């Protein structure tokens, strides 16, 4: 005999039937996403390479990882806050070696995987395949988080979100079952959630509120134990691991609250850019969106309960609100971090939008459907009292708007991808020139490079940090004892009695003794290895830091 709880679960689930997309349907969706990826990111796959953390990770994998303890014990190369991250990076590097284009292709595959997992989740929740496919494609093209599609080191976000979405799919399917099968489904979901957080904790806040979805689908009794299990796992994992994070943090509730307000304000700006990806007033767009939602609610009240447009408007209003909630909750995880981790940060910093992108696109597509439904109501009204609107008109309007939005997204993504490709050209040119000018270097030698731009677009690094050129040169000379640093505007070098004292951007101090230091200026091909203070002072004035940002191709 069924328990009252199981009867309640079945009755609630019946109101929200779960779809099971076929392998053929998923295959078609996958091929569509692959085609879109090749059209938009194909040039970057052919011309992109390593950037920023990629060089450090590659050097670490090549020279510094020896044995299983490096995967388990916190260290300078494994802070311990993301236990699966080191395993993930090591597995990929073991498979791909140092083939840079392979990493760019792998990065694109993780983006495809995220969109396909989103398609699966939306279909499981009952969304029609046309709408689920359109949303998945727009997430793939979303330009305000495109670093996760262009830069290998940001793929942990893609994989973490994919694990979360697969967990939601398993959890929702479990809501329709009872007994041991239901428990097994939720254990599968919980395992995927745990894996997501242990790889990259950006999904933690969204996992905590996913219980609201359970409640909506199956009722309070079915939702509460599942919700409690999810929340407990998240809090335990955050306490055990995220407290060791190397991400710079804010201190004090007022600073965290101020950053949270900044995040929400910038997410509203991104919402406006997502709805209308052209230069336009944020305030005007948001006001129009609010008026559209209010108008949709008003129209739905005046339609009869038998009119499909009433339920359609109500459904998409809730979908828009759900998308906005996902966006807000996903942004909350970054509130304790320093202001750099904000939605409008350019270049590699826009990886913080990887999960908010899902909510923003869902909300935006919902707005398109509401607009289309209201347009169908207008057509019916203009056609006379007895005229019935074609329900397909709303979908046609939404898809048309989604296509136009996708075209706008593609334009922005290609601009960003070209900056990454340009950065790769500057990097390879410098590494080749170094080998020509400095064919041999000593162990523990320090190289300072000049004349190379730090960025090819705001936030898109050529060589801009203390760790990217360092890793690249170690790989190029196959010597982990060599160190190299780009001298960019804001850095200073002083010739002291024992060696060169360098203060790099970010307050990093480097001391390089004479006899084991080299200077190279890529702008004029000049190289020098001073051995005394006098010699250093005579040559140092001839070496000039490269520009901060360059948008043109390097001279050959």
How does the SSE layout of this entry go?
Blueprint lengths: L3 H12 L7 H25 L5 H12 L4 H4 L10 H14 L3 H25 L4 H13 L5 H4 L4 H21 L3 H21 L4 H6 L1 H8 L1 H21 L12 H23 L6 H21 L5 H25 L23 H27 L9 H46 L8 E5 L4 E3 L2 E2 L6 H10 L5 E4 L5 E4 L3 E6 L3 E6 L3 E5 L4 E3 L4 H8 L16
Parallel strand pairs: 1-4, 1-8
Antiparallel strand pairs: 2-3, 5-6, 6-7, 8-9
Helix pairs in contact: 2-6, 2-7, 2-18, 3-19, 6-7, 6-9, 7-17, 7-18, 9-10, 10-13, 12-13, 14-15, 14-16, 14-17, 15-16, 15-17, 16-17, 17-18
Structural account:
This protein has 556 residues and is of the alpha/beta class. The protein folds into 3 domains: 1-246, no CATH class; 248-390, Up-down Bundle (Four Helix Bundle (Hemerythrin (Met), subunit A)); 421-540, no CATH class. The protein is built from 20 helices and 9 strands. The strands form 3 sheets. It has a 4-stranded mixed β-sheet. Strands 5-6-7 form a 3-stranded antiparallel β-sheet. Strand 2 (455-457) and strand 3 (460-461) form a beta hairpin. Helix 7 (129-141) crosses helix 17 and helix 16 packs antiparallel against helix 17. The chain is elongated, with a radius of gyration of 27 Å. The N and C termini lie far apart (80 Å). Mean pLDDT is 89; it is low at 1-11.
Radius of gyration: 27 Å
Total helical elements:
20
- By secondary-structure content and strand pairing, the structural class works out as alpha/beta
Number of domains: 3
Largest sheet: 4 strands, mixed
Please bin the fraction of helical residues. 55-70%
- The run of helices and strands is HHHHHHHHHHHHHHHHHHEEEHEEEEEEH
Q: What value does the average pLDDT take? A: 89
For the largest sheet, list the strands in their spatial order.
Answer: 4-1-8-9
Backbone shape: elongated
Number of strands: 9
Instruction: Give the N-terminus to C-terminus distance in angstroms.
Output: 80 Å
Contiguous low-pLDDT stretches (5 residues minimum) are 1-11
Strand content: 5-15%
